[in-house]
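User: Hey, quick favor. My workstation is busy. Could you predict this chain's structure for me?
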Amino acid sequence: MGSWKRYGAALAVNGAVALLVLCMKGFDLKIYYVDAFGVGGAVSILLGLLMWVAAAGAFDTIGYGFSTLSSVRRYKDLYEYTVWKKEKRDRMGKPFLPFLLTGAVFLAVSFVISAFI
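Assistant: No problem, here it is.
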């Protein structure tokens, strides 16, 4: 399922976004809490989806392009770079999962609060 540090980071991002929305709107109405938890969850889910796409290797070509700008070439071609990145990603696990799960929890809390307004 992932490291507890990643879940802590995802929870911190969600909490910071929710708190920012609450500071901008106020703390007096329940609808503001629905907005805050909804925005926090949506930001976290979108960040997790972006991380998922990056973990699938969608940006490998761009990374290889930037790596060729230096005078020292570490990789012979794009294929070698892609294989190296895939091996590196396989060791990392699934860093996007905590953001998706905590975002879903924040959205669920938003729906529960909106049901009782």
